[in-house]
Amino acid sequence: MSLSTLFNHEEFIARHIGPNAADQAAMLAQIGASSIEDLVAQTIPDDIRFKQKLPLPDAVSEVDALAKIRAIAAKNIVNHSFIGLGYYPNITPNVILRNVLENPGWYTAYTPYQAEIAQGRLEALLNYQQMIIDMTGLDLANASLLDEATAAAEAMAMARRISKVKAEKFFVDEQVLPQTLDVVKTRAQYFGFELVIGAATAAGDDDYFGALLQYPGADGAVRDLTAPIAALKARGGVAIVAADLLALALLKSPAEMGADVAIGSSQRFGIPMGFGGPHAAYFAFKDEMKRSAPGRIIGVSIDAKGKTALRMALQTREQHIRREKANSNICTSQVLLANMAGMYAVYHGPAGIKRIAGRTHRLASLFAQGVRFANGSGGKIVHDAFFDTVQVNTGAQTASIYAAALAAGYNLLQVSDSVLSVAFHEAATQKDLATLIQLFTGQSADLAALDLATSEVIPAALQRASNYLTHPVFNRYHTEHEMLRYLKRLENRDLAMNHSMISLGSCTMKLNATSEMIPVTWAEFGNIHPFAPKAQTLGYFEMINGLADQLKAITGFDAICMQPNSGAQGEYAGLLAIRRYHDSRNEAHRDICLIPKSAHGTNPATAQMMGLKVVVVDCDDSGNVDLSDLKAKAELHGANLAALMLTYPSTHGVFETAVKEICATVHQFGGQVYMDGANLNAQVGLTRPADIGADVSHMNLHKTFCIPHGGGGPGMGPIGMKAHLAPFMSNHAVANIDQGDASVAQGQSAVSAAPFGSASILPISWMYITMMGAGGVKHATEIALLNANYMMQQLSAHYPVLYTGANGRVAHECIIDIRPLKAASGITEVDIAKRLMDYGFHAPTMSFPVAGTLMIEPTESESKAELDRFIAAMISIRQEIDQVQAGVWPAENNPLKNAPHSKNDIAAEWDRPYSREVAFFPLPYVLDNKFWPSVNRIDDVYGDRNLICACPSMDQYE
Question: Is the pTM of this model over 0.70?
């Protein structure tokens, strides 16, 4: 063997792809294809095939890829950050770092739609909600949103839904964080809202349907908002307070000032800055607003045995069901980060949180006093009342102090030519305090004397008197041993990818390789402020631009916008670029969006958010877009046609042969084609969205490009655009994006709080593409097609397959139809989903895009052995259905209707018409790797009728 062969630079490809060469040959023979290329030719229309080698480098080994990204990371400079503006250094407890953030048992789980096998994550999220309820003083909280800025935009939209004020005016405090204002401006424009920006005291001066107030303000000042809130509400407006979560440990809560809604970021609770994300935004609200609130809400219910059990509550509000009438287009949130923030509160408890807040505030107070001592009575401190952020009028010395601080390794915020801002935080030390006083005053400070001489700066009326974090969960796990065991207990209640395949169609639950994850927790990526000087972030820009180049090569687009921090946010950013493009051509009247009936629910919800009118396009009997209906509606609305939102391959799991004609029809009438990137895993290396005819497309990096789902987030949804749309991508008001493609996007407002969204997880996708190389990413797609068609062929003898392509093939997923079985036996897709838990599997996607079906996507990362285990489970379940249909088991008392069988059933009295062995170990392989659901089937109706979204007493879990 040659030396090059022995080094085996392509080794990672085989680590990522499940079936080996022998398995692939056997699978091809089983499905009747002579080769991989033969299968691809039968599956993908020839007129859209990309038949060249992708313009990407060849594969790189894991060791070499890590060395490359380590060298890139080294170009970032990790200074002491005192910039603030919503992003702060903090300390992630190592027990949480190792056992949550770095643990695939937490980060590879899926959104907890199947609640019986997600009780651990749901409890962690309930803890998070309880923490937010306690800190804000409000009645309810959701389980996180994407970031503080988009949470503010969602709050504005909710205020419009619930306010009885007829005026379309919304008030924004002039002290709102600048990145929040930027995103709110974007959202308001296409909702048709007029923004009025002014001092908080003016919030009640006119008929505003709502107001957004910052607490403390962006300038650091702590102001009592009680009076302006009362004045606003007296006129019918909804009061929204964006509050610093750590500050609320010392400050009067938003609810105590009269707020209806509180929003903000939980980043300070142990989440690294990460150049802007991911961070869990919080969203708290009054009880009467619960059916209008955006995002997921975790609620308490009971299972079939009456035991306390958790689930996602009020799901009928969501876009999957309500589509364009949904409260928002949110599909993912920041679950992994919310779990971390909640666990931070569990670990520290109320005393620990108060101590951290008190230390942070005391450092700021001593700094202010030190500056005053050196400059005479009154000094140069701008505001007398503050929490952590001190503004100093430094006059003619501003530039020199800023430069000296930079040279000493400290990043400050320069507010103006005469004012500097210093924001203290959990990680700040006494040494930092002494250094900063020296930098500002030129004098050494006696910290002990300063401590004695410094009095309280928070007004007594604004000091918090109410308790928080009183629930036992926040008061019993303060040793590392207890915390470690608590985290493990919760992990054991969740089925994640480290246990078995998660075959969710459209969700692409594939391998999240360890080497891809390692750079995320490096300080060079984690400890960088999103508004740090660009000279300190050269590594980040090199990595981000490198990933953009990789994505351009894969998709064929001319430009990439990395800002959207979820797939739904990518949809929004893509339609925003289209609307801005039409506006630039004096065609703002184009407001019709064509959306196929099969589309993901986020599509119509996003179109509505952009002020577009949704016109539904029919699908034919084969599940394809009805071309004649599309043409008729495109012609009918031609003068006003803005866009078509198209998923490809289709949501039905088929490569439609007429896709180029579909795109050409939309272009013929002046519309733009937005391609939903949910199914990009079936395209990479074999076809490209831009070549097919798409003008813009989002790319779910948490699907095709290996960022893990995190139990429901984080994600990233960058968009690719053709050159004519590139000038209309999102920019950023604070950190202008002037490198790479975005140099053309000057003046455009933002869609997310940070310039590059959740930047710290982008190395995952960079590593994946780098290690796979041009050949590897293409081969991954080929095997995704092979695995899906093998699965379809094996199951088709037992279940009807709903849709196939022209040659009887499916793309990367297939839909099996349960409706005929339900009609014959009474067994539903829900029963099958719950029974699969007894076999150790998470259910496929249920009742989407067609009610009464299961959509299965095995991905390329699953081995033939794992596919065969899943197939065996589904065949066994089919045989169980036959037993019900034949009357061997009663229609309402059988293994499917009683599923899942929890660990609590083991020792219980057994009077069922089937054995314990059938219930718990239906196939031999289950015995080797048994997953025990911790609860029985959950009563969804009870949970919604008796809504409780806070932590019950601990004995209810016993």
Answer: yes
